Amino acid sequence: MLLDRYVGWAVFRVFLLVTAGLTALFSLLGFVEQLSLVGQGQYRLTGALSYTLLTAPGQMLQLAPVSMLLAALLGLGGLAKHSELTAFRSFGVSQARIIGAVAKLCLPVIAALFLIAQFIIPPAQQAAQRARAAALGSALPGLSNGGFWAQKNGVFLNVQSFAGAELHGVTIFSFAPSGGLQSMVEADNAAPEPDGSWRLTGVTRDRIADGQTVMDNPAMLSWKPFLSTRQLQLLAIPPETMPPLALYAYVRQLKRQHQRALVYEQSFWRMVAIPLSLLGMTLIAAPFVFGPQRSGGAGRQIVIGALLGMVFVLVQQITGYLGLLLAVNPAFSALAPSLLLLALGGWLLERGGHASRH
Question: pLDDT under 50 in the chain at which residues?
Fold first, then answer.
């Protein structure tokens, strides 16, 4: 409908501007934080700037619900300021219909955010971390304090660092079904081969048989991993920046192996909560646009939006930390704030519509 397109476009233009502004603001704060590392190793100002730009898409994804709230407040507030909402209402258009037009805008936004989360954020995050780690002369973030661990069917893999596709500081433990250690392989480097195997060099191998340990140092050893190099690199970045589909697949894999997946599950459900948060933020804006607060102008709407956004983010973080601390169901702890926001927004919209009819 023409009305849906008109209202949606009015809000979408503001959404783009607000998203760009908030992403730039938080990226600037991140850049200032990176300046404390400038001068260490080979890390320079250009490296800090590159890291900030590469991590900006992740910032944008996390800020999307707050951006939608501000866009709804300012976009609809602009229409109210020019009496366009009053004109719509005089033709019998309800508040729910106008808010519904904004809610329809959330669908293409959600699709775009999914594509960004799936295809843009993970490689950008990996590139940012690799470049910074190389400049600082350290392992990738997330690979410190003992490196990265993975296991399957009694085989435990430990990786200390990545350099492109090559891995450094690789240790492989193999355990028998009874739980006894069968072998331990330590390699300085591991390079992926075209057939999917790893070529291990700088190898020290210890094999245990009949209570005796036999050690040898083969010049090269081929090993078939249970994770690809790309999977390892994805798992080395923070769970919240992993591709949604890869994160979902990894959670299922951990559950099949009866391993704890609480952190990864919560990160996945937080991604699922983003669309709900967008819709909730749209609904929550209604009473501030159609109520008496609209007379305060854009300044008051920005303050209201910023406060609501900060409260929501704070509640979301608190429930997330409490969920991890108390081992609460990840879906519940991640989705609860967004579902409450949706319920509150729907109640306020219904209340506002009922009040306008009397």
Answer: 141-142, 144, 293-295
Strand-strand pairing, 198-209 and 181-192: antiparallel
Helix (H) or strand (E) run with residue 185 in it: strand 181-192
Is 72 in the same domain as 170? no
Predicted confidence (pLDDT) per residue in 144-192, tens digit: 455 778 888 889 999 887 776 788 899 999 999 888 899 999 999 999 9
* 204 lies in the same domain as 273: no
User: How far are the Cα atoms of 139, 151, 205 from residue 201, in angstroms, in the given order?
Assistant: 19, 21, 11
Same-domain status, 159 and 93: no
> For residue range 276-324, what is the model confidence (pLDDT) as tens digits?
999 999 999 888 887 654 445 666 777 877 788 889 989 998 999 899 8
Domain check: are 155 and 132 in the same one?
no
**In angstroms, rounded to a whole number, what is the distance separating the alpha carbons of residues 6 and 113?**
22
Domain that holds residue 333: 2-137+262-356
pTM of the model: 0.82
Same domain? 118 vs 158: no
Angle between helices 2-35 and 45-81 (to 10 degrees): 150
Q: How many domains does the chain have?
A: 2
Closest CA to 215 of 188, 189, 191, 186: 186
